[in-house]
Structures are given as structure tokens and as C-alpha cells.
Amino acid sequence: MNPAVLLLADGTRFEGEGLAATGTSLGEAVFYTGMTGYEEAITDPSYAGQILGFTYPLIGNYGISGTASQHPHPCVAGVALKHLAPRPSHYAAISDLGSWLDANGVRTITGIDTRALTVALREHGTIAAALAVGADAIANVDATLAHYAREASTRGLVASVADGYRPGETIGTGSIHVVLLDCGVKRAILRELIALDVRVTVLPYGASTAEIMAYAPDAVVVSPGPGDPTDLAGTITVLRELIQQKPVFGVCLGHQLLALACGAKTFKLPYGHRGGNQPVKDLVRDEVLVTAHNHGFAVDGASLPDALEATMINLNDGTNEGFRHRTLPVEAVQFHPEASPGPFDARGLFARWLERIER
Questions:
Q1: Residue 211 annotated among the catalytic residues of the structure
Q2: Per-residue pLDDT, 349
């Protein structure tokens, strides 16, 4: 084991033990409240640029299956946890968590008080952090973090995780053809679309309107992803053109990008919405849903133009969680339906969206 330090920009310092990957990882420190789902979270592209602290004290007890991974490689900047289970017990496990993190070069700190870390983040809000593993990295961590905190930006995060599929790669053989703009798509979203008789062609988030239309899709879906949606000005312009020509649907970052394309505004949340327990009210059906989230930016509901109808709000802070266009087949949600059970799981939600396609 190597010595390790997690340093927050306000000076809060956590000392623990690191795994094999040495050096310094920089990013926003955030926390994840789920008791399970660590493999999915670590490989979730929406966590790119973030050092992920797990609030549950024992992580890794069912190992790594490989089938739960949402991306070909881990996407987090680093991992912080209390206890790392050394010997997993699960029939599907192909590796223990620690060995898998080492094999993928993920800098990790163990043995810290993650409850204290969570309290610090709840009091301060989102904060820049450095995870240093090894004596050399620790010796320079204060200066490294100070420089990062001055220069930090989310630009480039989408590009770092929009690499799971070849441009133009088609998955599935269904009768409905969807072009998916990859801002960091999760495998679960593709799985649920394919289960609905959909054939998905994956294109990069920077694809032009002409490139997308050349595939003659029945609809376009904009995937989740990390960072500030205003970083993707070109994608917003393309979506503004597409909504006049094709049904367009969005999830998470896709929700924010579509809102901007329609004339709404977005803003940075003080804490972000993360975890699997966010209450969302469906304004159309007058129901409350328990949903899964991971995003640091939100759509300003007060800025929605008259053409958009708010369909969902977050009951914790009143932020917009969904909208639909009043006349065009354009609709989006902020939460992650592929990780939210119930009437608004991905398959049910996507099925309702697909019903709006005229073929």
C-alpha cells in the first residue's frame, strides 16, 4: 500500500492508504450514496472529472462482474472510500474491486472517514480536490491543487468519455432507427433502446446536422454526459436545427442541451444531484418518482420559453427535471431512467417517446 492524501481546496485534508496507481488526480470532490452500484458509478461517463467518495462504509463486497460496467473504461478521476473489501463473494465476480482499480490505473484512497468527507462537501458544496498517492505526489499536492483550482474547467470532459463506440457504429437490428449523439452514453441506455425494437447508430456529439440527417433516422436521442452543457456550443446549434426536422429526445446532459437549443438557460448547482434517491414530481400525472441522478448543472425552469411545457420538477430544490415541446416531438428528462425503477424506467419512458415518431 502507498500513502495517500485527499486534499480539498478549502484546506480540508484526509490521510489514508492508496492502491498501486500513484500520482495525483484532480477534479471535483463529490459523494455517492448508494449501498451498491459502485461498478456502474465508477464507469459512468457523467462522473468524468470527479473524485468519487462512497458514503457507504464497505465497498467491493460483491466484486466486479464486467457486465455492470457502463463504459469500456473507468471514467472517474479518483475514488475515495472507507473499507475496501479484499475478498468479494458473488457468483458473477471476475475480479475484486481493488485489483480492478489497479489494473485500470484509478488512483484510490482507502481508510478515510467518508462520513466526515460527506459532511464537508454538504457544508461547502462542490469543491476542487486533489487525490495524491505516493510520497512524491503528496509532497507537491498543495501546489498542484492550488494551480488546478485557479484554472479548473469542464471543457474536454465530454471528449474524454465519448469514445466508447466507433462513429457510425450501428447496434441492434430493430425496425426503428435512432441516431444517438454520444456525449458519454451508458451501455444501459443502448440496451433499453434495443429492447424496444430500435436500431441505434452512434455518432459523436460533434456531428453536424448534415451528417446526422444522412442516416435518415426516425429520431435522434442525446445521451447523458459530464460537465457544463454550454461547453458544447456546436451541439446546441445542431440540435436547434434538428428539432425542426426530426423527433429529438434527451437524457441528463441531453436534457440540458435540448433546453438550451430551445431558448432556456442552465446554471451550476451548489451541490449537484447525485445518488439513487432524488424525489421528482411528474406534473402531468401528479405522481412522485424516486429517481437516480448524477449532474452538476440544471435547467432553469423559470427560463423555459412558452414553446416548452415543464413536465417534472425536483422536490428537493424545485429545479426542472423534464419538459416537452408543445407542438414538436421534442422531450427530455434530467434524471437517469436506466437506473430508476418504476413507471419511468428507461424502457417505459423510451417507449412513450417512440410513440411520438411518425414513420
A1: no
A2: 87
